[in-house]
Amino acid sequence: MGYGLLKGKRGIISGALDENSIAWKVAQRAKEEGAIFTLTNAPIAMRMGEINKLAEECNAEIIPADATSLEDIEKLFSRSTEVLGGKLDFVLHSIGMSPNVRKGKEYGDLNYDWYKQSIDISAMSFHKFMQVAEKQDAINEWGSIVALTYMAAQRTFSFYSDMADAKAMLESIARSYGYRYGKLKNVRVNTVSQSPTKTRAGGGIGGFDHFYEFAEKMAPLGNASADDCADYVVTLFSDLTRKVTMQNLFHDGGFSMTGISAEVLEMIKPE
Ligand code: NAI
Hints:
Elements: E1 10-14, H1 22-32, E2 36-40, H2 43-46, H3 50-58, H4 70-84, E3 88-93, H5 99-102, H6 112-136, E4 139-149, H7 161-185, E5 188-194, H8 200-203, H9 208-218, H10 226-237, E6 248-251, H11 262-267
Parallel strand pairs: 1-2, 1-3, 3-4, 4-5, 5-6
Helix pairs in contact: 1-10, 4-6, 6-7
Bound molecules: 1,4-dihydronicotinamide adenine dinucleotide (NAI).
Residues 15, 17, 21-23, 41-42, 45, 66-68, 94-97, 121, 148-150, 194, 196-197, 199-202 line the site of 1,4-dihydronicotinamide adenine dinucleotide.
């Protein structure tokens, strides 16, 4: 059931690859709340064709854009304001990829060309989105920009490799651009630090299934699902959160504030 939270709002939603994607769920919820938006993903991801189903369901145009290409991003923003008939109110950055993680490279054996790609795709692209938006003056006053991140930006998780560095940079960009965009246009910028979630990006991380179970047992409310995340992101796009900016917001069932849970303690109890 929708509450009309995004009635009359326009936006861009990136990163919907298949029905497990967090962005996929955000698109469905945003539609339910009355928003109109465009969808975007890397041209190579389009080949899977899944996104066409979502576009049809949401009555949204798909605008292919490689998040590392400034030219693609410029087209994404100009075309979006054109087809949606005005400036934007929200943008979702739901993009992450590390060739080092994907190919199982440990943190002490990184390929530096791939490291640059991880940073470019997963962090610098967020800056590019906002710089292009600012230059095109594509976002309305009190607009909201959200990127998805993970707690490995603050605390070390052995399996997260160079993605941890990319996420730390992403969160820093949210603060720096949040200040700038706030002063300029009252636009807010936040990151949502999400629980481990069973998606293509999540599953690409070695040991993910074990870790998912661990986090589930640690968090007093259990892991937050992609659907839960979509609910939260919709509130951040809505007018109910107009003074929240430059924050990294944990959406993890309480995991980040739990030292150890009774369930995990029980599991490691000596015989
Ligand atoms: P996903 O695999 O469904 O989404 C990742 C998206 O990034 C895909 O749609 C992919 O096509 C897109 N992408 C990759 N390279 C790109 C490029 N060069 N240009 C444009 N798009 C590109 O997985 P998920 O989990 O929905 O990921 C979304 C975001 O959530 C990512 O930033 C991820 O790091 C973050 N996140 C995921 C968690 C998880 O456990 N799944 C936990 C915390 C954060």
